[in-house]
Amino acid sequence: MVSVMYRNRRGRITGLGSAVPEHIMTNHDLEKMVDTTDEWIQSRTGIKERRICEKYESMSDLAVAAGRRALEMAGLGPKDVDLLLLGTVTPDHRLPSTACIVQKKLGLVNAAALDIVAACAGFLHGLSIANSFIRIGQYKRVMVIGAEKLSSCTDFTDRNTCVLFGDGAGAAVVEASEGDRGILSTFLKSDGRLSELLWIPHGGSIAPPQSFHNGDGDFFITMSGSEVFRHAVRQMSDASLKALDMAGLKSEDVTVMVPHQANIRIMESAARRIGIPIERVFMNIDKYGNTSAASVPIALDEVVRSGRIKEGDILLMAAFGGGLTWASATVKW
Ligand code: UT7
Hints:
Elements: E1 9-19, E2 24-26, H1 27-31, H2 38-45, E3 49-51, H3 59-74, E4 83-87, H4 98-106, E5 112-116, H5 122-135, E6 141-149, H6 159-162, E7 167-178, E8 182-190, E9 198-199, E10 222-223, H7 225-246, E11 256-259, H8 264-274, H9 285-288, H10 295-305, E12 314-321, E13 325-332
Parallel strand pairs: 4-5, 4-6, 11-12
Antiparallel strand pairs: 1-7, 2-3, 6-7, 8-13, 9-10, 12-13
Helix pairs in contact: 3-4, 7-8
The structure holds oxa(dethia)-CoA.
C-alpha cells in the first residue's frame, strides 16, 4: 500500500539509450542458410534484417552501452543509481547475474542489481518493479535495462525461428517525481501452464549441458509459432486495455503505442483490437527483428529521440513472451 506521504510520487523516465551490434544479417543472408525467402520473411513478419553479435561481443557489452546513453540523457552519473534491473533470458553466465556484471562495468557502486527473467516482457516487468519501489520510497533512481544476445540460443538451421530473432539492448533511467508526469499504470501477468509453447528445453539444472553427449541436447529456442501468435495478439491487447483503464484513459488518448516487436501482423492485430490507428503504432521490427526484452526499450529510445513525443503525450507500451508472460504500461511524457 502506498503511504500518504508518497501519494503523488511516481517513476518518470528521464533517460533512454539503446545499442545494437554492428553486424547486420539480412534476409538474403538467411536465404543461403535455410530454405526461406526474403519475400516470405517480410510478408509474414515485417523483418528485413537483424543485428547479430560477433563471438567476442557479450550481452552485457550491449547493456552497458545502452545504460551509458540513458545516464547521459538523464544527466546523471553512475553513483546516482540506487537500483539496476536487467530483463534478459540470455545472461552472460548462469552465475553471477548479468545485472551484477553490468553494475561493475558501468560503475554503479551504490546500486542493488538483479536480473528479471520474463522474456520479451522483461523490460516492462522491470519498469513496473522500478515504479513500485519508487512509489514506496525505497529507491529514487532506478536503471531498467532490457538486453539480449538471442543469437546465442538460436538454431540457425531451423527456419521456423532463426529468421525472427536479433540481438540488442535498451535502457531507461527512472527517477522519483512528484506531479502527473511519469508512469501512470502498469499491468503484469503470466501463465506458466503454457510455458512449453516457447522455451529452451535443456541447459538448466534439470538437464545441464554436461549431462549430454554427442551434441544431442536441445539448447535452442523452440516455439509453437502460430499458437504463440494467437496468445500474443489477445494478451497484448487485453493488457493494453487494462493499463489504459487503470490510468483512466481511452485508446483515443494514446499519442504513440510502443509494442514489443515480434511480428508486424501481431502489432497490427493488437492495435486493431485496442482501437489505435496503425499510424500511431511505432515499429522498427524491419531493422532489428525480435530482440525479446530489448525490443520495447530500443523502440522507446528511437521514438523519443526522433522528436515525435512532446511533453504531456500519452505512451502505451505492451509486450508478450515466453513464460508465458505479458505486460503493459502507460506513461505521461
Ligand atoms: O516474442 C515472443 C513471442 N513470439 C512471437 O510472438 C512470434 C509469434 N509467431 C509468429 O510470429 C508466426 O507464427 C511465425 C512468423 C513464427 C510463423 O508465421 P505463420 O504465419 O504462423 O506461419 P506458420 O507457422 O503457420 O507456417 C506456415 C508455413 C509452414 O509451411 P507448411 O506447413 O504450410 O508447408 C511453415 O513450414 O510457412 C512455413 N515456414 C516458412 N517458410 C519459409 C515457416 N517458417 C518459414 C520460413 N520461410 N522462414
